[in-house]
């Protein structure tokens, strides 16, 4: 039997302490029927991928493998015909449903690790895919194969690379190049040491937004913060050489400061560090790559699977009254140093080293301790830039979140057709008012936009 071993990152995501399922929600203009869903899935590239028709098995030595099996689509498409929950809106009902999935509904190992939940009463589809099957870029690319362009139903959506802002390249000369290399070495060393220390003993100061060991099992609540990509671009243009990611982390910094100022007025030290964890795509060509290329096993460095690293992202508490664009400028300075360093690559290599010589359980515990000793998770995935449809039904929004972590706050932003929705998953016993937190983030972007227009 030709079983295929899991990748090191895949093994990490099936360990109890770092078990992760991606939950992607697609809003529709009208309900998707069970028969239509089966037809779309049956004729998609998704089920042709070996991972989506393989069982996760474990041998006598505890090593995990993928084993091909016969796929029964009926076991993977789950219909919830009646309204769910008691929420007063479709969005709240769907968010409550997904929040419950993040802590109480693992995927069964007696079938391939993916499901599609149909919620016709709320005009919604929820795709659940185990993170061991691939990273966000891979799975987004694969998911797009079940959709079509809204204005051209015979064509799948264009999968375009994420084009970041082009920064001016100054002639810095030989001395400048040497200094750049020295900075890269210095920052890489500092950040690698910090990553290891975070996994051992260094932790954030206790605040009302920080979780800790065991919090991943606490009840969850999920809310949505809505942004417009055009607003983010306006803010980006207000600071020289800024990028959309700079804007996002500026919004996180200002939004958290606003929220903490409301929850803990006058009790926090000015400049208090609040550290986040972000997953970074390590593929040579970032963006949504063509699914056929990703499925080529021997594509150099860009094959299917989890190609991610971890970076630590400190943001700082400042009291209201500060210039909103200062948060963006501080975020940009921090991210410029992160980009100059090899932190993401080194964190990936450290994890690989620990996995190889000490095993999956120790590697999982290292990552778990990093999460326990920090305050939030953040990810940002670029989705389709054009309107898409499933079975001819227009998709109105795309949102994503993951299994609960020991963080009290987990944030995942996904852009689609000019909108950028951020799903905020919180431990509701620690953060009972996530709607206020979402509004703090939304207000932060609007304040930055206003300041950018005035400059």
Q: Can you walk through the features of this model?
A:
The chain has 455 residues and is an alpha+beta fold. The protein is 36% helix and 22% strand. It has a 7-stranded mixed β-sheet with strand order 5-6-7-2-14-13-8, with helices on both faces. Strand 15 and strand 16 (419-427) form a beta hairpin. Helix 5 packs across helix 11 (360-372), helix 7 packs across helix 9 and helix 7 (244-263) packs across helix 12 (434-454). The chain is globular. The protein starts with a strand and ends with a helix. Residues 162-169 and 298-302 have low confidence and may be disordered.
Key terms for this structure?
six-stranded mixed sheet; 455 residues; 36% helix; globular; alpha+beta
Give the count of helical stretches.
12
Oligomeric state, counting identical vs distinct chains? single chain
Task: Quote the distance from N terminus to C terminus.
Answer: 66 Å
- Mean pLDDT across the residues is 89
Q: Note the overall shape.
A: globular
Please give the number of β-strands. Answer: 16
**What structural class do helix, strand and pairing data support?**
alpha+beta
Q: Helices and strands, in N-to-C order?
A: EHEHEEEHEEHEHEHHEHEHHHEEEEEH
Strand order of the largest sheet: 5-6-7-2-14-13-8
Q: Tell me about the largest β-sheet.
A: 7 strands, mixed
Binned, the helix content reads 25-40%
| Radius of gyration (Å) | 22 Å
